[in-house]
What we know:
Order of helices and strands of chain A: HHHHHHEEEEEEEEHHHHHHH
Number of helices of chain B: 10
Oligomer: heterodimer
Number of strands of chain B: 9
Largest sheet of chain A: 4 strands, mixed
Radius of gyration of chain A: 21 Å
Structural class of chain A: alpha+beta
Helix content of chain A: 40-55%
Distance between the termini of chain B: 30 Å
Radius of gyration of chain B: 19 Å
Mean pLDDT of chain A: 95
Shape of chain A: globular
Amino acid sequence: MDLSFTEEERRERDEAAAFLEAERSSFTPECDSWITGFDRAFSKKMAAHGWIGITWPVEYGGRGKSYVHRLAVSEVFLAAGAPLASHWFADRQMGPSIVAHGTEEQKRRYLPPILAGDATYCIGMSEPQAGSDLAAVRTRATRTDSGFLIKGHKVWTSLAHHSDYIYLLARTDPDSERHRGLSEFIVPLRSDGITIAPIHDMSGAHHFNEIFFDDVEVAEDALIGVEGRGWYQITGQLGYERAGLERIMSVWPLLTEMRGQAADDPQRLRELGELEAAALVARQLVYRVAFLADSGKPPDHEAAMAKLFSNDVEQRIVEVASRWAGWRSRIRQTVKGAAFGGHLFPAWLIAPSFTLRGGTSEILRGIVARRALGL
Amino acid sequence: MNYDLDDDERAVVDAAQKVVQAADPWLGLAEGGWLDLLLDDPEHGFGYLGLVAEEFGYAGVAVPLPGTAALWPTLFEQSAGRRRVGVVTGGGEYCEDGAGAELVVRRPHGYDIDSFEIEPLGGLEGDGLARVTVTGEPVATSRDDAGLAPLAMQRAIALACSEMAGLMRRILDMTLQHVRTREQFGQPLASFQVVQHNAARLATLSEAATWAARAAVLDLSRENVHAMKGWLSAASQEVSALAHQMHGAIGFTEEYGLQRLTKRLRTLRFSWRDDSEHHLALGRLSAGL
């Protein structure tokens, strides 16, 4: 065992910190910045430093580093509340999925724009009738002479309005049920027949969308991987989606403010210490998942455990901050005097989503019970 | 980073599992050279001791490893031999592992059994809490108290973390065994989703405990040790509560083994400083105080 960073990882964390220091004036730290902080120019600057596609193979323009290396660097960016949304999903899961399942031609076409910070992807999984029960997906991709015709309806699609592509789960076998007969596609969002409608979340922010596919034609090579094997491809992807440090660090700008407002009160210091301790334990679980991925073991129930544990901690951070702030919790974030530099107000408004997005805690406990414990 | 045990570490676990099953595990630790590991192998020894402490926790065998194998050799740069070491952890007279101690540390000094008196105080089986009264001259004095004392204490705390993690893993295994075999309403308890979800929570806490303890052993910085012991102590209550709840009445009978484990876990929660103290210390560091 060795739970420390390599010299190279340490050096690159320092470089990332120096980059963020230099960029300090170019962004405002925000909670949930990996979903809501859309800034393509910032992503392009990160790309220029090689901070997109860190884990991807060198032959496709990546750097061939470990998942642990990617976490080590991304931890610095998440801690700063930097705007990562433009490239986050593609870097985290679409790229690795294309590397794993795409053809040579698809890799050459889709990976370079992501690596350059030019392409934004959204995740086309959930549907009105397929939330936690993802295998109930109804969106259809029907074979035509030249490719596929897509008809259906996706929902809760973060960032679709900013995205270039949607990574879509659709049913290719009309007679199939549940997990079989599903396939994955990359669909350009500027295709004819696509309508994107905004959904405002309870904070009033617009990152969710619903997307209607009304006989959208895509070419044969929009299909990623093996027709009918989409579910099994996606299961591997979800491991990476679930066990990133964003599952514990979404409210880091709030926690950073809390550190500065506990000094005169032993009770607050205790509560702060309790949160910091739990966050450090969560961090171990997340890094362990990355290590497993580096060892060639696709993260599964380990990722579910890491996310369950981490989401619990980040919701507690918001609750403890709320108690400290008392009535000041009610002051909207744009007003002077808003609690914790304005970070608490939006954090409370997004907190319910922590234990929902990327797999609800109930689904994850089921995964742990079945696949880790064999119950 | 490497979260896998290497071959040497696996061999340590295997050996520790044998030692803990011996008729006299303490003698086994002494004769196997485990108590002097820190001095004999400064590079890897402490990591190995953490794994040994996990196995003793798993087996539910309480031994004074923190004082004997970690604190005494760190503080005095010499072996305690096979003598059990008790440690006065605060400025007062209360001593961890004092009951049965043959050596006692009250920093910066170490005393042998002719130089102190012990009054056992612990109420739960295996709790060595004691009041110690020094009556004679020290047999050892720390060379550089300011430098070595914090490290000695952090190592001792880390070994307590390891024992707690081992206990929690055993509690999980016992609980899983119970819910798989105990039937109610004509089916195993494990077939009920509410039980599955409680078991998943318990398993998540146990997994977290393992890595918290190993993180403490491998990174002895003040911040990290406060964090891990603080979290383990706080989590221990939920672990015990979940296990007892899933076991039902059998779990709190004297005859069944669970109660010995949850008692030991409670003792360790409040040993080597409890969650409240560690959280406060970490909070102060975090706030820059």
